[in-house]
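> forwarded from #structure-qc
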């Protein structure tokens, strides 16, 4: 069953530019706990309320880390590192 409060929290994280990992760090909880709350495996009204108070992320979500690389760039760099005939 969908929980509108959880859906709102997930949408808030996306809108403010947070990944689950960066949000967990900013909120002072573990990634696993945040993930379980946002997938309705656990309940934490306090954590959901704190998500609403997060400021905008200084670095938008898809502009840092591995997620920032378009898939084709990752595959191109992988193929450049292979020797011919290596599969």
């Amino acid at each position: 069953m969908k929980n509108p409060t959880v859906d709102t929290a997930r949408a808030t994280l996306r809108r403010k530019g947070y990944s689950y990992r960066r949000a967990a760090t900013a909120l002072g909880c573990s990634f696993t706990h945040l993930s379980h709350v946002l997938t309705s495996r656990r309940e934490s009204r306090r954590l959901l309320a704190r998500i609403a108070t997060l400021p905008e992320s200084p670095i938008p979500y898809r502009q840092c880390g591995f997620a920032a690389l378009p898939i084709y760039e990752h595959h191109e760099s992988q193929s450049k590192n292979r020797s011919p005939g290596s599969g």
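QC bot note: The mean pLDDT is 80. The longest helix spans residues 4-16.
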